Amino acid sequence: MTARAGRPGYSLLAILLGAVSIGPLLTYGLSAVSELVISDLGISEAQFGLLATVCFGAGTIGNAAFGRFTDRQPDGRLLIVVFSLATVALLLAAIPGGYPLLLVASGVAGLAQSFPNGVTNRILAERVPMEQRIGWTGIKQSGVQVSQLVASLGFPALAAWIGWHGASGVGAVAAVLLGVVSLRVLSAVPLLSKAPSSVGPTPAGAGASATEPPTNLKFLIYALAAFGLINGMGVQATNVYVSLFAVRELDFSVFLGGMAAAVAGAIGVAARVGWGRMMSKGMAAAPLLLLLALMALAGAGVFLAAGATESAALLWLAVAFHGASALGVSVVLMAAVVRSVPSTSIGMATGMVTAGQFGGFTIGPLLMGSLVGSAGGFELGWTAVAGIYLLCVALATYLVMRRRRQAKKLSV
Predict the structure, then answer these.
(1) Where is the secretion signal located (predicted)?
(2) Do 234 and 389 form a contact (C-beta atoms < 8 A)?
């Protein structure tokens, strides 16, 4: 769709979605075929978890280190970096070079995820009208779950035909094609005639909340980063091991195990779009984060129950809770940034919040892998995930109470 009446077309939204989705493709693909990777390479569950740890560790460092760099680089150059790094990561994974090479590929995939949030948030701030901005944030942030959905379906299907190395090669070709299309679309979308100096509060119903009380910006960024850190631990502990849990504990096939992760991704796509729309209608971030934390905690309890009863039905219910709640947090965090931070600093702020998330992504799989490989197995692992989400509930409750205190001060 082309731009109409001064509005950017959906082709721009599509490339934002692609830029966010391409970096995680390798990690989600390997998770979907985890049983094959573990048996093929002769590695332990903890070593498999280290792949995700290396990926998100590199992403954490990249997001923290390159925030200001992102603010200084043109959008097109950053998109080239994103798609090039993703392509290299997938190509390295396509080479049968053993576990060390796969660790390197995972690290490169993590670096590929250091830039998309910053550049896509800035594109939204400088090329998309205010009334569309928060809603589009929800859609483009669903790119991570689109990646999870595509990888969780595509990698097992391709692996049955050409092996998991071959599946990675197909992903590399897709990354190149998406990168070329993205650059062409971006070049056709001009900057707004007068880019706003801030993407901060606007009237309710027009992309932000008029009832949102003034908040110290530095505290806001640190609070969002902290919540992302804690939630991220639970998110990737679940994402990386849900397929293995389904195969080993519930006797699912490798394809059906990948389907469990795919369903979580599909629900996550819908959830991020839905939560983004709620934010665009004026919903404040703190109460929404509390709701999502409570839902995620319930989901961890259902995973525990599924393992204890060996119930496939409970597994699907747990996957639904996971997709609808924990996977939806990112859009709330990014919408809060887009709503509150000046466009000239949006790369740095996005980098800090995303670094918090990636820090959690780094810790979660390593912790879960160690627990799953211990005598406690998945039961201990899901208990730890429940404890993580309980911390999210506590932090979100504090943020809600703090917001209410500020609102009372303003009304005095």
Answers:
(1) none
(2) yes
